[in-house]
Amino acid sequence: MNTVIGLVGTLLGAVFGSFANVCIYRLPRNESIAWPPSHCPHCGQRILPWQLVPILSWLILKGRCAKCNQAISWQYPLVEMVTALLFGLIGFRWGYSLETLRYIILIWALVIAVGTDFSHRIIPDSISLGASAVLALLALVSLDWAAILGGVLLFVILFLIAIASRGGMGGGDIKLALAIGLALGWQSGLIALLVSFFGGGLISVGILLFSRKGGRKTEVPFGPFLAVGAVVAMFWSTEIIQLYWDFTLLLWGW
Fold first, then answer.
1. Radius of gyration of the chain from Cα atoms?
2. What's the average model confidence in pLDDT over 190-195?
3. Contact 155, 181 (CB under 8 A)
4. Which of 4, 45, 61, 219 has its CA 20 to 30 A from that of 35?
């Protein structure tokens, strides 16, 4: 059954990845995600149904518009492939379960958040709060108090960091952390934060050391690090926690 769910998840992921591309392009521009239909960003030509097949259409058209021949960004097949891969892995791992539903909701929100954070340095509230609302409802219906605690805990931690850093942490990151906590629960949610802080810290130090023009003024979007941390925690939090306890016992000689 998990194999079937994984295959279905892969196909659905490609479709949802295609829609994620629409959201990534339109939401920061305050455009409707429903109308007008998909069109070339260069010439405005409406994209035909056969040109909307995720990944394959971009390959067949060699990454160019069928009408104006202008290049279509590699972002489109990349987002579709990443979403398909993650949806498929979730299906293979958790099969037909509440975890699968929660995780694919989170992944879809993370994919869009990373795209908009990279392109416009914003994470739309409609994505972070929309995903949080659905995940909170699932947690309440299933009486998953660990998920509720995770959402509250991650939100409060990043909110306090934002206050202490006087705006160093964006509001979009705080709301995205709420969704991550609601999906992963408090233990995996904390792992996600630790991984994201570690990754963000390494990149920031690298920029300070090697960037000639960036230096201290370079703004590093934190949303992608939150997303990576969430994915790592989603799949490997149990192993990370066990490794931590093994190391602690070894350190103390127990």
1. 20
2. 96
3. yes
4. 61
pLDDT level of residue 170 (50, 70, 90 thresholds): confident
pLDDT confidence bin for 248, thresholds 50/70/90:
confident
Does residue 69 sit in helix, strand or coil?
coil
Neighbours of 252 (CB within 10 A): 7
* Beta carbons of 161 and 153 less than 8 angstroms apart: no
Return the structure tokens found at 109.
């929100």
Q: Name, in order, each residue with C-beta under 8 angstroms of 196's C-beta and a sequence gap of 6 or more.
A: 222, 225, 226, 228, 229, 230
Asked if pLDDT for residue 215 goes beyond 70, the answer is no
pLDDT for the residue 208: 64
Residue in this structure with the two tokens 């959402």, named with its chain if needed: 151
SS3 188: helix
| Contact between 199 and 229 (Cβ < 8 Å) | yes
Residue from 184, 173, 200, 223 nearest 106 by CA: 184
**Secondary structure (DSSP) of 4-52:** HHHHHHHHHHHHHHHHHHHHHHHGGGT--SSSSPPB-TTT-PBPPGGGG
- Looking at the predicted structure, is the pLDDT value of residue 43 above 80? yes
Residues 6+ apart with CB under 8 A from 221: 117, 118, 121
The letter for the amino acid at 152 is V
